């Protein structure tokens, strides 16, 4: 116990480990919006969050808008405890690929046991539903996708009129902008 280092250690001990999962076709705003909320929280309360942007591998992903996102951590290399996982939304093709990818689905299922909360932004709800994490739970997605989500995953209780839903350990937002509102609510809960 010698002062400055003790404060840094205390902050790091309380730091929440966040993982934002991306895939080819991810919506850049759905990634950047929540990421910026956690970054701002860190400015106001330094060391509150450690945000990791992750993908199936370390290869860059091309966002739905054409933006290349690099510097991703492969999911398989995340060995530390995670507080919160957020699955980004994105293009229909990207979501189909991500939701049918056995590695991502298995990773989410395995992490559920040790992660405080797992959620999605916008159409990322399809990945949560594909993994079974949203079975018998209320969930929301982009308004234009709610009917399809309910049709493809009848065990999920789709609530199309919600802006976001925080159902304890499972959460979701209606759209990419609502992902910012959801991230703000998560910070408030913390």
UniProtKB/TrEMBL annotation:
<dbReference type="InterPro" id="IPR002818">
    <property type="entry name" value="DJ-1/PfpI"/>
</dbReference>
<dbReference type="GO" id="GO:0050549">
    <property type="term" value="F:cyclohexyl-isocyanide hydratase activity"/>
</dbReference>
<dbReference type="Pfam" id="PF01965">
    <property type="entry name" value="DJ-1_PfpI"/>
</dbReference>
<protein>
    <submittedName>
        <fullName>Isonitrile hydratase</fullName>
        <ecNumber>4.2.1.103</ecNumber>
    </submittedName>
</protein>
<dbReference type="InterPro" id="IPR029062">
    <property type="entry name" value="Class_I_gatase-like"/>
</dbReference>
<dbReference type="InterPro" id="IPR052158">
    <property type="entry name" value="INH-QAR"/>
</dbReference>
<keyword id="KW-0456">Lyase</keyword>
<feature type="domain" description="DJ-1/PfpI">
    <location>
        <begin position="18"/>
        <end position="188"/>
    </location>
</feature>
């Amino acid at each position: 116990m010698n002062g400055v280092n003790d404060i840094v250690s205390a902050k790091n001990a309380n730091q929440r480990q966040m993982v934002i999962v991306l895939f080819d076709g991810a919506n850049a705003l759905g990634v950047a919006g929540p990421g910026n909320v956690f970054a701002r929280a860190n400015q106001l309360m330094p060391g509150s969050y450690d945000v990791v942007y992750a993908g199936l591998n370390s290869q860059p992903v091309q966002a739905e808008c054409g933006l290349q996102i690099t510097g991703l951590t492969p999911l398989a290399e995340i060995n530390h405890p995670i507080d919160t996982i957020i699955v980004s939304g994105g293009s229909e093709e990207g979501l189909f690929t991500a939701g049918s990818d056995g590695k991502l689905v298995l990773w989410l299922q395995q992490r559920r046991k040790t992660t405080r909360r797992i959620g999605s932004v916008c159409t990322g709800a399809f990945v949560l539903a594909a993994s079974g994490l949203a079975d018998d739970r209320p969930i929301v997605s982009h308004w234009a996708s709610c009917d399809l989500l309910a049709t493809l995953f009848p065990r999920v209780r789709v609530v199309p009129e919600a802006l976001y839903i925080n159902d304890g350990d499972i959460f979701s937002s209606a759209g990419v902008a609502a992902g910012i509102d959801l991230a703000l609510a998560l910070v408030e809960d913390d």
